[in-house]
UniProtKB/TrEMBL annotation:
PROSITE patterns recorded: RIBOSOMAL_L9
Family statement drawn from the similarity comment of this UniProt entry: Belongs to the bacterial ribosomal protein bL9 family.
Function: Binds to the 23S rRNA.
Keyword Transferase assigned: no
GO cellular component, one term: ribonucleoprotein complex
Ribosomal protein L9 domain segment(s): 13-40
Record field: compositional bias (Acidic residues): 169-185, 193-205
The entry's keywords: Ribonucleoprotein, Ribosomal protein, RNA-binding, rRNA-binding
HAMAP family linked to this entry: Ribosomal_bL9
Record-given protein name: Large ribosomal subunit protein bL9
Length: 212
């Protein structure tokens, strides 16, 4: 179907252009959303008569989108989700979740403005593009974590997608044991000290008894 675009559509064309699209795309999206008109002589005349109004409206929307983009730029949003030790989510974070999180922070964004090709299925820092206007795009960071504490650790650059990263590895435990051993003299362990202290205590008791 040939349609006249009433606004710029990414990868399709500019306002006023006549382009050919699939019938379903035109009927289900472009026409009902007011983004295009069927390409015929009557609508061409209508477009030209309304062009100035459409351009003014487009400029207003772009200005509003730029203001929102400026507020969103560089922002990070924390999303807490249940996940396994490998970081795999038990569910996912989809477009609707992005919209809901942004709404909680006071930003109104439509699902079709979230450029998330596939749902997020693992913890970590994820950059999500938002198409606020055909000419205005901004990316926000979603910090998906198992808890607020882990979100802070991820924000500092830690990778928590393994059990070792979360709880510490066996090597780290061995290093801690070695550090503890270094506090004692060679050949003397905490257990040895405990035995010696017990023996000394018994000697003192025996000495006291003898004195009495």
């Amino acid at each position: 179907m040939d349609v006249i675009l009433l606004e710029r559509i990414p990868k399709l064309g500019q306002m006023g252009q006549t382009v050919s699209v699939r019938n379903g795309y035109a009927r289900n999206f472009l026409l009902p959303q007011g983004k295009a008109l069927r390409a015929n002589e009557a609508n061409k005349t209508r477009f030209e008569s309304e062009r100035a109004t459409l351009e003014a409206r487009n400029l207003e929307r772009r200005t509003e989108a730029e203001a929102v983009a400026e507020k969103l730029n560089g922002k990070s949003f924390v999303v807490v989700r249940a996940a396994g030790e490998t970081g795999q989510l038990y569910g996912s974070v989809a477009n609707r979740d992005v919209v809901a999180v942004l709404a909680e922070e006071g930003f109104t964004v439509g699902r079709n403005q979230v450029e998330l090709n596939n749902p997020i299925k693992e913890i970590g820092l994820h950059s999500i593009p938002l198409l606020l206007h055909p000419e205005v795009e901004v990316s926000v960071e979603f910090n998906v974590a198992r808890s607020a504490d882990e979100a802070e650790r991820q924000a500092r650059g830690e990778d928590l997608s393994s059990a070792d990263a979360i709880y510490g590895s066996d090597e780290e435990e061995e290093e801690e044991e070695l550090d503890a051993d270094e506090l004692f003299d060679d050949g003397v362990s905490p257990d040895t000290l405990s035995e010696e202290e017990t023996a000394e205590g018994e000697d003192d008791t025996q000495t006291t008894s003898s004195d009495v």
